[in-house]
Amino acid sequence: MAKLKLREIALLALGLFIGACCGFLVPVLIAVFQHEDYITIAKSRIQVGDERGQALGALSDAWFHSECNYLDGAVDDLFMYGTRNPESVTVVVVTSELSEGKLLVTFVGSLDGDVALTMDDPTPICEPPIFTALEPN
């Protein structure tokens, strides 16, 4: 597990204190930390410049993977972690672009917010479709 920063420890302690009194903040804080952990773990496993095949293997523990292809040959791989709720799922995005005949990673990050917003965009074509993995709202 990644080292917790002082700010994160203070927020966690505050959340635990308030959560003990109110009973609702702790799950929210845990979800925030899990989201950051998934992104941190992905970035520790994959580096910009790695081949796409390495990235696919490094994130094979995701409960869902979708490949989104662009006309120029670029690929966004979407890896889903955590909950199946479209409002709180963590989506790790790995973008790969063609370079000298190889697909090389150019970005490792996340989609923040409501994944449902991205499902209405007709470009790129993702297989399998993202909405098949998420619980309906």
In short:
The protein has 137 residues and is α+β, with helices and mostly antiparallel strands. The protein has 3 helices and 5 strands; from the N terminus they run H-H-H-E-E-E-E-E.
Tell me what you see in this structure:
It is built from three helices and five strands, in the order αααβββββ. It is of the alpha+beta class and 137 residues long. The protein has a single domain (6-132), classed as 2-Layer Sandwich (Double Stranded RNA Binding Domain), CATH 3.30.160. α1 (6-22) runs antiparallel to α2 (25-45). The chain starts with 5 loop residues before the first helix and ends in a 10-residue tail after the last strand. The model is unreliable at 21-33 and 113-122 (pLDDT under 50).
Please write out the topology.
Elements: H1 6-22, H2 25-45, H3 52-58, E1 64-69, E2 75-81, E3 90-99, E4 102-111, E5 125-127
Antiparallel strand pairs: 1-2, 1-5, 2-3, 3-4
Indicate the structural class.
Answer: alpha+beta
Distance between the termini: 32 Å
Quaternary structure: single chain
User: How many helices does DSSP assign?
Assistant: 3
The appropriate CATH architecture is 2-Layer Sandwich
In round numbers, the mean pLDDT is 74
The number of distinct structural domains comes to 1
Query: How many E strands?
Result: 5
The helix fraction, in percent, is 25-40%
SSE order, one letter for each helix or strand: HHHEEEEE
- Unreliable spans: 21-33, 113-122
**What's the overall geometry?**
globular
Tell me the strand order in the biggest sheet: 4-3-2-1-5
Major pleated sheet: 5 strands, antiparallel
Rounded Rg: 17 Å
Q: And the CATH topology?
A: Double Stranded RNA Binding Domain
Identify the CATH class.
Alpha Beta
